[in-house]
Amino acid sequence: MKKLLVVLLLSFTASADDLPRRGMAGLMVGMEDDRVVVRNLIPGLPAEKAGFQAGDVIVTLDGAPVPSTQDFTSRLGRHKGGETATIESTRGGTKKTTALQLQEWPRETSAVYDATYGTVTADGNRYRTIVTTPKGKAPIATLFIVQGVGCGSIDNPPPGSAYRALIESLSRRGFATLRVDKPGMGDSEGGPCATASFATEVNAYRAALASVKERKNVFLFGHSMGGIMAPLIVETAPPSGAEAAPLRGIAVYGMASSTWLQYSLENQRRQARLRGEAFETIDADDRLAEKFVSLFYVQKQPLEKIVAEHAEYRQSFGDGKTLAAGKSGKYFQDLYDVPLMKSWKSTNAPVLAVWGASDFLTDGTEHEWLAAAVNSWRPGTAKYVKLDGIDHWLFKAADQRASMDREGKDGEGEYDDRIADLLAAFMTEHSK
Q: What distance in Å separates the CA atoms of residue 105 and residue 96, rounded to the nearest whole number?
């Protein structure tokens, strides 16, 4: 993907908050024996009132089969508050069809900050923004938090969420924050998330950044994929008639600075070793992976074609469309084509690259490399920091294996506030 693609259709405006609120059912689901099963219900919400119980199997949503939790939550999330979702379920072999009227998703509240909901527009789509301001304080600076790759909403994150804990910690220290829900998630348009392009997502973040242009001290914190996207969000001047936010610095955590092909191969090998796989098994898997990345990234063959013609990859890509994290193969092919170092060179802002040593999804050398590259262009403007005992999701973990063993257990973990310490110090140092 050439740099032009990222901004080809980019036009954005801030608008009144007229974006319909997404619907809420109160169903918590998981996979059991390749079926979507109700794990829990939130008391007082529509699903509980309609008689759903833990253990119910979800068969169809609005007449279409439900193959995965990702599919169910994505399609259910397209319903707005007040709309009706038709769910067919089974319990003990008995089928039941329920017309479930959803209520609006509650807005975010906190004892330490005020949350203001807004809307920005990019490429003709409206995206939900949430700005938090510390109660009773004039903000020292504003931190734009750009989330990771997964298809999930960051609007009103639940208790135990690392993002919620980070925002509250920064609010107590006197900092404001900005978030935007990615295409197709929460209230945002531009979805579904699974098929939204890489460029569409970058443009949504750029629109959000432009919406705070009147603020004096604005910083960006890119977490995981957000850290990879960071230079693309800030590098290019906005279209004629729009002003860029006065960005004072960029902090990244748990990201990659190498090409996505190289990162993918190294990530696979690292995780295989952590699982204790035999060296001969790892070698065989490496060869399969090298063949795949050649077909997929270098030759640009569609994932569907590779899966259809090479049986050895079918188990890894069940639907033949989704590569990872609920995203399409094309999304990652476009990412591979982005010249990241060239983009970083043009950012012209101080950089803080932080790696948690218990993060099994990334490596410290990726962050060291970024800091070294920035310092080669602008000496003394980048810093690399390693934090022991913290994992990819900002939770405490003894080491990479301990974090890996906890993967997939949402909400389980103790947030590590050292990341807020670093971000607060970085923003204080570089604020005017």
A: 25
Distance CA 76, CA 25 (A): 8
Cβ neighbours of residue 1 closer than 8 Å, sequence gap 6 or more:
198, 199, 333, 334, 335, 337, 338
Kindly state the tokens that stand for 378. 């602008």
Q: Residue 355: helix, strand or coil by DSSP?
A: strand
- pTM across the whole model: 0.88
Conformation bin of residue 123: beta by default, left when phi > 0, alpha when psi is -120 to 50:
left
> pLDDT for 44-102, tens place per residue?
999 999 999 999 999 999 999 999 887 898 889 889 999 999 999 999 999 999 999 99
Residue type, 163: Y
Taking the C-alpha atoms of residue 266 and residue 147, their distance in angstroms, rounded to an integer, is 22
Following CA atoms 401, 402, 405, 408 in sequence, which dihedral angle do they give, to the nearest 10 degrees?
-110
Q: CA–CA separation, 238 vs 241, rounded Å?
A: 8
3 state DSSP class of 193 = helix
Let me know: does 299 contact 293? Beta carbons within 8 Å: no
